[in-house]
Design a protein that fits this description.
The protein has about 325 residues and is of the alpha/beta class. Helices cover about 40% and strands about 20% of the residues. The protein folds into three domains: about 90 residues, Arc Repressor Mutant, subunit A (Orthogonal Bundle); about 110 residues, Periplasmic binding protein-like II (D-Maltodextrin-Binding Protein, domain 2, 3-Layer(aba) Sandwich); about 90 residues, Periplasmic binding protein-like II (D-Maltodextrin-Binding Protein, domain 2), CATH 3.40.190.10. Helix 2 packs across helix 5 and helix 3 crosses helix 4.
């Protein structure tokens, strides 16, 4: 254990440096993130090695890997940094009604379409000076398992490039906090008067032309996987890179689209669309608000996180608030 003499030789910057190197697993990337030179990061690591009497990070051809001792220290140091951040943030109490802060929220466009109206209404009434930056999030499949397609987004959260994200995600690492907002399922969506709406069978579903939202242009999605498990397939005539583009395209064609039910319920009337149940069974996906544990120690981000939990995602409730006069 460090004695008081040792403690007097440590500053918080060394712990931040340790935390970032542990996350990046690369000295140069850590240096860029910290706005330092690689030599300054190496010098700081040298000081920590002497203080802790451990190599901490071992060089490899691709970067560095933590020693066993560094792996043990990673979470306690992250907690110290989070607590220090909370102390600093607490120096100026957060008052939503008077705040002039700007928060950055990340979400896929299908979620943003449902979120925006309710969020802006809530902010107008409860926090009229707060501004929002909305970032569109895209999954990175690249052959990765479903559990890993949002890893780049979690990294952006830790780098504080985003304050809060809203994702279809089952589990997050323990350094994050997640709250389920709703469960999403998919519906078959089409223009009004489409013949499929009158007789929505699985056989007809497979025989018709489909539109698929695909960021990479790959004409194979989760519905195709479910069909293949039954020895069936469909023809994907068109892929588009966003759900909002899908809505406008479906309104003007005879294509079928399998889209998130909450977004369709929110936007169908605007685009002249109707929907029916998907004739292939799929589990519902949890959609969660996610932030780092360090971030929610900031009273402002904690307030925003709580506000997102109050959003009426099903359209049946209102965010409780006091209307301005």
């Amino acid at each position: 254990m460090l004695n008081s003499a040792h403690l007097s030789r440590i500053d918080l910057n060394l712990l931040v440096l340790f935390h970032v190197v542990h996350e990046e697993r690369h000295v140069a990337r850590a240096a860029e993130r910290l706005s330092l030179t690689p030599s300054a990061v190496s010098h700081g690591l040298g000081r920590l090695r002497r203080l802790l009497n451990d190599p901490l990070f071992l060089r490899t051809p691709k970067g560095v890997v933590p020693s066993a001792r560094a792996a043990e220290l990673a979470q306690p140091i992250a907690d110290i940094i989070a607590r220090a951040g909370a102390v600093i943030a607490g120096a100026e109490p957060f008052d939503a009604l008077r705040s002039r802060r700007r928060f950055t929220i990340g979400a896929p466009d299908a979620i943003s379409a449902v979120l925006l109206t309710h969020l802006l209404d809530a902010l107008e009434r409860r926090a009229p000076g707060i501004d929002i930056g909305l970032v569109q999030l895209l999954p990175e499949h690249r052959g990765q398992p479903t559990s890993q397609v949002w890893q780049h987004t979690l990294t952006a959260l830790e780098a504080r490039a985003l304050d809060v994200v809203i994702l279809p995600i089952d589990e997050v690492p323990p350094r994050f906090v997640a709250h389920k907002l709703f469960e999403e399922h998919f519906v078959v969506t089409m223009r009004k008067g489409h013949p499929f709406a009158r007789n929505p069978s699985l056989k007809r579903f497979c025989s018709m032309g489909h539109l698929l939202v695909s960021m990479t242009g790959d004409p194979y999605g989760v519905v195709d996987l479910a069909l293949a498990q039954q020895g069936l397939s469909r023809r994907v005539v068109l892929t588009v890179p966003s759900f909002m583009m899908a809505l406008s395209t479906l309104a003007k064609t005879d294509l079928l689209g399998t889209l998130p039910a909450h977004m369709v319920a929110h936007c169908a009337a605007q685009f002249g669309l109707v929907s029916v149940d998907l004739p292939v069974l799929r589990r519902r996906d949890p959609v969660c608000a996610v932030a780092t544990k360090a971030a929610v120690m900031d009273a402002g981000i904690a307030w925003l996180f709580a506000l997102l939990r109050e959003i009426p995602w099903d359209g049946k409730a209102s965010v409780p608030s006091r209307r301005r006069h």
